[in-house]
Amino acid sequence: MSGFMALKMELRAVEDVANLDAMVLLSPFLDVVRSPETSGPITATALSSIDKFLTYSILHAGSPNLAPAMAQLSNAGTHCKFEASDSVSDEVVLLKILDVLRNCLTGRLGDVLSDESVCEMMETGLSMCCQMRLSEMLRRSAERTMQAMVAAVFSRLRNIPSEPTFGTQLGLSGFSSTLSLSDTLNNNADGLRMTAPDPSGGHIPAAGPNGLAPGTGAPGDGNVSGNGTPVEEKEDVPQSPYASAPPSEFEVGGEVSPFGLASIQELLRVLISLLNPLDQQHTDSMRLMALGLLSIAFEVGGKSIGRFPALTAMVGDHLCKFLFQLARSDNPQLLSTSLRVIINIFDTMRSHLKLQQELFLSFLLDRLVQPPSNTAPGTRKADIESQLDLATWAAGDPAEKGKEGGRDGERGEREREREMSQRRDGGPRDEARELMLEILAQVGRAKYAMVDLWVNYDCDIEGEDLFERFVKFLSRGVFPGNRYGPYLQDNSQLLCLDTILELVGHMAARLDEAGPPADDVAKKKANKQVLLEGAASFNLKPKVGLKFLEDHGVIYNDPTIPRAESLARFFKTTPKLDKKLLGDFISRPDQLDVLKAFMRLMDFEGKIICDAMRELLEAFRLPGESQQIARITETFAEVYFETKPVELKSQDAVYVLAYSVIMLNTDLHNPQVRKRMDIVAYSRNLRGVNDGSDFSPEYLKSIYDSIRKREIVLPEEHQNQVGFEYGWKELLRRTRQNDVAGPFTTTRSNAFDQGMFAVSWKPVVSAMAFAFANFSDEYMVQRVIAGFNQSAALAARYNMPEVFDYLIQTLGRVTGLIQGTPTADLGNFPVVDVEGQKVTVSPLSVRFGMNLKAQMAAVVLFTIANNNGSSIREGWTTIFEICQTLFVHSLLPANFLAMEDFLSGASVIPLKPKAAPAPREDRRNDGGLLSTLSSYLLAPYGSSGEVTGSDFSDDDIETTLSALDCISSCKIEELYSQILDMTGDALVAPVQVLVELAQKMTTDRVRSKSIVGGSTPNSPVIATTSSRTQLPYNPSAVLLLELLTSIIAKAPGAISELWPIAFDFLSKLLNSANSFSSLFNERVVASLLRLVAMVINHDELRDSTFLALDALRSLSPATLSSVAEPLMRGLTKVLVESADRIRSTTEWNLIFSLLSATMQQEEAAKLSFILMRRLAAGDFGVGLSTENYASFLQLLAGFANLPVAPPKATDTEDPALQRGRQIVEILRDAQASIPKMIVSSSLSGPRAWEASWIPLLSAYAQLCLNPSRELRQISISSLQRTLLAPEILQNDDVDLTIIFERVFFPLLEELLKPQVFRRDPEGMGETRLRASALLCKIFLQYLTQLSERQGMKTMMELWLKILGYQDRFMHSGRRDQMFEAVPESLKNVLLVMNASGFLLPPHVERTAEQAALWDATFDRIQPFLPELRGELFPRPKVPVPFAEGAPPPPPATTQPPVEHAVEPTTAKPVDVTQPPPPPPDLTFV
Predict the structure, then answer these.
(1) HSE value, Cβ hemisphere, 13 Å, CA-based, for 769
(2) Smallest Cα–Cα separation from 520: which of 575, 578, 462, 455?
(3) Are 1368 and 1382 in contact (CB under 8 A)?
(4) Secondary structure E strands in 644-778
(5) Three-state DSSP state, 690
(6) Which of 327, 391, 378 has the alpha carbon at shortest distance from 356?
(7) Integer distance in angstroms from the first to the last C-alpha of the chain?
(8) Is 1388 exposed, middle or buried (0-12, 13-18, 19+ CB in 10 A)?
(9) CA-to-CA distance for 1395 and 1405, rounded, in angstroms?
(10) pLDDT per residue over 1255-1307, tens digit each?
(11) Residue 1251: helix, strand or coil by DSSP?
């Protein structure tokens, strides 16, 4: 009480309380608090007074002796003693103590507290929090007080200057993970040391030296005496170093330093020690309390902790280690709190914890991955994830995965199965799983979080592909977790989807950001990929792997480095290598150099042999073969002895000692060994092996203790806690290697998004597609649509066509507009008139109009396609398949339904061909059931009059209109227009797809039908007609063909790339034309000729156009007849536009052969004849020339014999005669151009004459055989005038026999044929007569020229042939005409020949040639006109014998007449029904 009296006197003397000495003010109150003789209420009153001094600012920063006063206040509060009373009063005292400590530390005066004071206060608070004998309320109050105090302490870090950055990475300041947490800070620079609380002890560590202070035990337990001395004491409870601190330390005038890093470091150490999961003394409640305090600490000062190496070392090693172990806890509260602390740590110290974050995220992913129920034990996690990928986003159609689940499982059974599976594989329960998933999602939601993962881990050679694993896991999470039950959407799916959409959204938001190039990171990623591929290849087959690595420059790439060392470096630095295979490989005899180089890369300098062996054996798995072990041990002995280790005198000693380390490790840690080796036995076994001497006992004991405490764990044997310890050790090793791990890089750039998107787009898009198709949440569906658009924007920026293809294919399946084959009701759907608009109501239009999600998918699909058409490749398949479906259901815009026609412009593609009656011979005569059934099955679309689907309602019409509106909003026309503006590969892609789709419907079906229709050798062959083997008309194929042709025709700049594709496809169609309908063949021909008209103008492609025309010529006659009209129209277009491109005779012959092949079709013949007339007139820019002259005349003459329609009543002239007159006129015009052609010809004179005149004469001769009498007469007259033309008669170079051999004689042969005679039985005899007379007339005209130019012998041979034909004419046909006309004609010829001096009788002087001609002539005439000689050339009268002046009679001739070349075969009667054989080498052209 004296103290209070002194204080009272001081107060009277002080004018201003603010100037009162702090020590004077607090001393009497602190004495009461320290006194064990005061009761609880009195102590509480004193504490309340102190609390008011602090709260009401009676004590302030300017108070004298404030620091010593605050130090004594802290000491008194933490060493409070009072008499025990009832439990309520005692706890009030403790609560007052907590209030004073909190206000003292958290108030404005807390900055003057020393490190010792802060540690005392924290130790007291922690003791109260953990003392289980205290009430729950008091412990919770103590915990809240500690939270406030911890926040105040760690907030002080902001004002403490940073320490040097040396050692900020773990292990660089001598920090060793092998030491305990207490050992790490045992040598605190300030000598501070806090004692961790003991939850089971009976003492509060901050109590006085006599034990538990009154009231600190369990209230009312009777263990505290009246004077505060405990009845029982625990001697083993560690006491605080501040417990017996005398008050003299805090005397007035003593210098007290404000608290700083030392107390914060000690507090952090104690909090971390409470988390040790292996310390059984610490309960989960203590760990929860410590986690809560650590969470506050990092929330307040986490960003400042990284500035202090000592704090960073504790966080990076023990704190993270304990937290990761607690994250496997089954206690939900402990798990959630641990995860929250971990997230706080990474949010504030991520730059210092690169590898720790990698381990944590990898741990979360491993925990969250649920292996399939059929997974074999020991399956690698990568294989498990691959299986899960194939079952979810990597499946063929991710949008349909929600409909694949089994339909007979019950919910309860599924839950039980899940629980059993989780218990079996150690997976988390649903609550823990959802919590972990939430944490994982939180990590990935930040704008640049995924970028940081990519840069720091996926692009790090030793790092795991965290970003890729993360994205794939989230994508799998969108799909239902249980595939054996009905689909149920849960929160985890929404959470995964939300994270994926955030990722895509962040990437899209960064598109317009500018950032530094990422070449270095991209190069690292590429190198990592090569290394991993090389490692995987090595693990499968070392030889192949090494070849791969050498080819890619990974090994042997530096000539200054030996090959063995280069390979050893790869083994030493490359992760993912199979340690067992590596050990087996480097221990081979042929790899000894590699083994030595591998060991020399390890740092054995200054290490004891057991530590060196530990480092060696953790790099690979020791082989099981003794020779390999010996080889490894010998090499190790050599390399280790080179470091000159102490205690070891020879390499042999190292060898023996290394073997002993291996044996000792096995003996001490193998559970099958019952009797363990002790240090004595171990020392005894090594006697005398150190070059004849013993090792020192201390050296051997250090080896023995090291192996006993820390087992050398071989790779692939790391499991449970041992495995975790090994993994943590490897993590710290990598952390110490700054050049390998490197600091955590924080990136704020879009430079890495391309690489990230390249590896993540497929799982992301698959997950979004599944959500779009199956999720019912409208908000999420709208976000997914935005995600589709953002993915398209990313793909467009990074030029990734495969993304667009996948997007379009996936959305296309959701639309439901992709159908395999057309329905049987095609073209039979009802059509209704709605406000002047024809609407076709079909089941598909109704279904599509009712499906809102399908409509959204269609709009999104075509929106993406319209905006990025040039980036689509395989996706065109889906687009055109949708167009097919819309077309056959009359939903496609009208401009897509047109097909180009050469004359009439555009016409609508018919959905069904016009019905044609089946030929009677194709119909079955039997009326059985089999016939009826087969007829029904073979009919493609039913009868034309059959109408299906006529039942529809107003709702069906409304939904169809809705479908039409949706299709209209898709703007398919704009997409088509965009195709026409494309170039290069972008344009080739839709063309190639159109070809592939059309080919599937046409040639592929023909091929498959022929394969299926093929019969086995022993099966009966049933003959089928062409109508039954022909494919039915497919309007979709026509649509694709028209689109293909239209695109190519409107892209002249790309014709060189597109024409080969189209030509190859169209050629295949023409080769199978017999299997297609005539309508389809017409479109094929029209398409081909449209393109030919373009391609022929390109020099590099001109030759291929004639190959295309030749393909048309190779069509069967029936097919040619069916496509004759469009073929002629197309050829007309080609000639009109590009006749000058047809240059050679072969090319013109090909054109004329097509005209000739189609002239049997009346309309085609009309077009062909018009084309011929225009060509002759020069309307095409080119006329008749030496290249086309002969073929033209030959074809022109053939037109005269074509049948024409019967004349109409209005016709003034027979159409056939009219065409014939036109042909004659064309021939006359052609004759006028002959001199010009001869002049321009490169042939010699006779050859040029022959090439020009003979085709013309042959054409006239061909017309002479026409059924029309008038045309024959005109033709014979024209032929006569032509033969008598001066160009023939006056040309000395002309061989006139050619005219007879190639014109006359073939004409006469044809006239002698009965079938020709039957063309006009009434008038053909006259034609024969006229031809016979013309023959004689022309012969007489040419007689002189023949004898002079060709000689008498040639003339005689020609004359004898003429006589032969006269003989045949005389005995053919009606005898009253030819029988009389032939002798008269011969008489004239003979008389003219006689008068001309060629045919002289024997009684006249003549030459030998004349005599031969006379004899040959009458020898040939004698058989059919025996009297003609005597009639024309009577013998001279014989004189009367013995009359005066009579000449003597001629001597009698006994020899037969001379035989000549022409046999008198016509002397026999001629049968006019049998045509005589044509003379040799006489072929009518």
Answers:
(1) 31
(2) 455
(3) no
(4) none
(5) strand
(6) 327
(7) 152
(8) middle
(9) 14
(10) 888 888 888 888 888 888 888 898 888 888 887 877 777 788 888 888 888 98
(11) helix
Residues 1370 and 1471 sit within 8 Å (Cβ to Cβ):
no
Burial class (CB in 10 A: 0-12, 13-18, 19+), 704: buried
Q: Which of 564, 396, 372 is nearest to 483 (CA)?
A: 372
Six token digits for residue 1046: 């239209």
Helix (H) / strand (E) element for 367: namely: helix 354-368
Average pLDDT over residues 73-93: 78
Phi first, then psi: what are they for 687, rounded to 5°?
-70, 130
Measured CA to CA, the distance from residue 963 to residue 893 in angstroms comes to: 12
Residue in the structure block whose two tokens are 């789709």: 997
Coil, strand or helix at 840: strand
Q: E strands within 999-1136? A: none
- Return the CA Rg of the chain: 56
Which residue from 1448, 1355, 1353, 1340 is spatially nearest to 1389, judged by alpha carbons? Answer: 1340
Looking up tokens 């010996």, which residue turns up? 630
> What single-letter DSSP state applies at residue 1168?
H
Mean pLDDT value across the chain: 79
Q: Is the pTM of this model over 0.85?
A: no
pLDDT for residue 169: 41
Residues 602/604/607/608 CA torsion (nearest 10 deg): 100
959: which 2 tokens?
């939904």
In this prediction, residue 330 carries a pLDDT of 84
Nearest partner of 98 among 73, 77, 83, judged by Cα: 77
The residues with which 83 forms a beta bridge, in sequence order, are 39
Distance of CA 511 to the CA centre of its chain: 23
Other CB atoms within 10 Å distance of the CB of residue 1067: 16
Residues 383-432: tens digit of each pLDDT: 888 888 888 888 776 666 655 544 434 444 444 455 455 444 455 677 88
Count how many residues are written for the chain: 1485
**Token couple for 1293:** 């170079």
Amino acid identity, position 110: G
Q: At a CB cut-off of 8 Å and minimum separation 6, what does 397 contact?
A: 810, 813
Task: Kindly write down the DSSP assignment for every residue of 867-934, as one continuous string.
Answer: HSGGG-STHHHHHHHHHHHHHHTT-S-GGGSEEEETTTEEEEPPSSPPP-PPPGGGS-S--SHHHHHH
Contacts for 327 with CB less than 8 Å, ≥ 6 apart: 335, 338, 339, 342, 360, 363, 364, 367
In single-letter form, the type of residue at position 441 comes to A
For residue 901, what are the β-bridge partners?
905
- Alpha-carbon torsion angle 552, 556, 558, 559, nearest 10: -130
What are residue 224's phi and psi, to 5 degrees?
-115, 130
- The bridge status of strand 905-908 relative to strand 898-901 is antiparallel
Angstrom CA distances, 953 to 504, 830, 846, 847, 949, stand at 44, 11, 10, 13, 11
Q: What backbone torsions phi and psi does residue 831 show, to the nearest 5 degrees?
A: -120, 130
Burial class (CB in 10 A: 0-12, 13-18, 19+), 1076: buried
Name, in order, each residue with C-beta under 8 angstroms of 517's C-beta and a sequence gap of 6 or more.
751
CA 1172-1175-1176 angle, to 5 degrees, is: 85
Transcribe 723-755 into DSSP letters. Answer: HHHHHHHHHHHHHH-HHHH-PPPP---STTHHH
Tell me the two tokens of residue 310. 């000592």
At position 147, the amino acid (one-letter code) is: Q
The answer to whether 969 and 859 have CB atoms below 8 angstroms apart is yes
**Beta strands per DSSP E along 354-448:** none
**What's at 1460, amino acid-wise?**
H
Q: Nearest Cα to 499, choosing from 466, 535, 531, 472?
A: 472
The enclosing H or E element of 657 equals helix 651-669
Q: Which two tokens stand for residue 1379?
A: 């029988």
pLDDT at 858 over 90: yes
> Using CA atoms, how far apart are residues 799 and 754, in angstroms rounded to an integer?
10
Give 598's Cβ-side CA count (13 Å radius): 25
